Amino acid sequence: MEENNQAAASSPWWMRVLVGRRPRRTLVRILVLSVTCFVVFKFVFRPISVKGISMEPTYRDGRINFVNRLAYRFHEPRRGDVICIPLAGESVMYLKRIVGLPGEIVSIKAGVLVIDGRPQAEPYVKYSQPWEIAERLLGTNEYFVVGDNRGMDQNDHVKGLVTRDHIVGKVLF
Amino acid sequence: MLLGYWTYQKLFPGDEQKIRKVLQNVSESLAFNASEGNIKKLAKVNTLTGCFTLDVTLDVNVPGGGSKSIEGRDELMQLVLAARSSLAGAQVEFLDVSVQLDPAQQSASAHLTAKATISGEKDFSVQELKILLKQTNHGWAISRVETIRTLGL
Question: Does residue A54 have an active-site annotation?
Fold first, then answer.
């Protein structure tokens, strides 16, 4: 122990700044931190960069966020959750809000979301146009998703049905 | 041993690698910019032509664009040339490509995300695609392209 302290004290100051008094311990810490970061960002919180305007004003183009892959480990997706849906893989994913749950009849009439015949309040929608989407009965495993920017042309806005197994996770914030 | 394996894969690519190469050729040939010379343009069109069968069909159904069917390589090439003349440039990428070969290895399907960026525009377009390929005398070629509605509506 005394020999280690002496060896640490005799090393140049710049080396102590770079790797600390005990380089081996520093290396172990770096390895542990790297593995932890890899596991967390690969399997738990996936970083994403928002592109496009379909979720404005809630999420603006260029914003960085994270997808919590474990969000639905203990409960099912809920109305209002903003989720990520992959295309062929996870390089590009749709970012949409769940507005309809399995078993419900969903429609949009004159821009207003209607669930089982009852109009729904959507405080996150700041811009809207009089969209019309025909009634649809959602299957036992289906969710209806749509972006927050209802001021877009309805035909330019990607929206629709997603099955439970196709949901990667919930946006963190 | 790893180097030997890598060299073998490069010299004698398997069917899946050949298919991925065809798809890569398609995405690279579809990409262009305004400063491209005529020779390069012609070379890309030739490469693109070789990637499709003569009787290729495209069933495209995209939000905001309606549905459209294209039959035959000639019609497809005309569409590509028309798009090139009306746009300043484009970048095309195929992402998350997965390939499945049929047991007889005479046909295959590829599932991927196509990402296209038009020059001068900030946003890009994405579309999930299913591509069917056939083994021909000249190697693998695309015989059918279908768009997939990721959100089913």
Answer: yes
